[in-house]
Amino acid sequence: MGQRQCCGVRVWFFLALGTARGDERDRHVCGPLSFELDGVVHYLSATRMEAPHAAAAFARRVGPTFFGGGCAAGDTRCVAEALVADLLAACGDDEVETRIAPMGGSEYEWWFAEQDDTGRGTMKVRHYLDAYERHFALARARARAGRRVALLELGVQSGGSLDMWRAVLGPSAEIHGVDVDPRCARSHDPAAGTFVWIGDAGNATFLAHVLAAAAPLDVVLDDASHRSEDMIAAFEALYPSVRPDGGVYAIEDVVTNYWPYYDRVRAEDGLSFVEFAKRKVDELNAWNSEPRVRGARRDRCLTPPLRHRRNGDSHRHGGAPVTDFTRNTSSLHFYDGIVFFEKRPHPMWTRIAVGTDTLDYAFNMNSGTAGEAGMGTVT
Ligand SMILES: *[C@@H]1O[C@H](CO)[C@@H](O)[C@H](O)[C@H]1NC(C)=O
Ligand SMILES: *[C@@H]1O[C@H](CO)[C@@H](O)[C@H](O)[C@H]1NC(C)=O
Fold first, then answer.
1. What is the pLDDT of residues 273-306, one digit of tens each?
2. Is the keyword Signal in the record (predicted)?
3. Residues near 173 by beta carbon (within 8 Å), at least 6 away in sequence
4. Domains present along the chain, CATH in parentheses
5. Could you give the CA distance from residue 179 to residue 172 in angstroms, rounded to a whole number?
6. How far apart are CA 291 and CA 48, in angstroms?
7. Ligand 1 test: best mutation among 203, 207, 209, 211, most atoms within 8 Å of CB?
8. CB 373 within 8 A of CB 300
9. In this predicted model, what pLDDT tens digit does every residue of 238-271 receive, in sequence order?
10. How far is the CA of 346 from the centre of ligand 2 (A)?
11. Which pTM does this prediction carry?
């Protein structure tokens, strides 16, 4: 079985954390299991491995016992215990690293799980943590490689989240927090690369002062007032300072946009942040509303979106002009309660294709109503 080869496998598994608070963490003790093999993290459930080749590789390392283990389907805890027992038998307990992991196993979850509940407080919606892991991965990798990385969080409050960013991004990241509450200055620690700026992000002079020190920004996380007015203003003020090659802007707790008792819309035009962001989806797609889609026939150039644009009606019909935002944004991601914007150079798209054995489209893409610059007209 070559059992010695299994040594060095890191197994993360779930067991009751026994928190003093008895909060929801305790209810997630049967989440997915993950393990790291040759630097790749794999997830497994009680009944199957995520990928057959990973299962095979894993079986070669730890032996077949685990896979015939006799745990009931879905009993992840049984699997975890059987797996760890197998590993310990094969490798010895000084050679297998096991950690009690929270659901999902993201670095952010680790941080929460490892707190002893005496430090500075923070509270996050649980599923945000997986989203951080996904969208801040590039910033984290850059920081871990010792490159300059700056994260700016609007809304510091007790300061616990600054500690979380520090733990996950590592010692070389620059972490900036902005808060109106002077008490937040207690988290200011320039020697550690953590800066807390006391002021109102809506004050342009103040913000310019912060940006002079912090820009370009790898990550902005708006966790401040959660009022649409402030969220939109902050986005417009800060987005240009997010680095163009993989920077991320996140707006947290847009749940407030759905709460009737909250300041959920901007006073001047009744726009909530979520509605503002939906319009940004049109702006992201603006190349597709352009009359000058490459190769479009001249007589098709006056596209419906352009006409609507002239009528000042472009949003309702899905067309929007190409802007700096279009050119600099690669994607938007909507989750329950949190929105991410990712910046990368975004020119008009081009196509890639192979093969000569192709079937025609089942419908004629150029036969739509007059003026549609369909896919087939793009060369
Ligand atoms: C705006 O910020 C500047 C610089 O921090 C400060 O001097 C000024 O008092 C602020 N303005 C208001 C209206 O708070
Ligand atoms: C878009 O990118 C251009 C060129 O890098 C830059 O001048 C501009 O400020 C950027 N705009 C935004 C909104 O990021």
1. 999 999 999 999 998 876 544 444 433 434 444 4
2. yes
3. 139, 143, 149, 150, 151, 165, 166, 193
4. 3-105 (no CATH), 126-285+320-343 (3.40.50.150)
5. 23
6. 51
7. 203
8. yes
9. 999 999 999 999 999 999 999 888 888 888 998 9
10. 11
11. 0.69
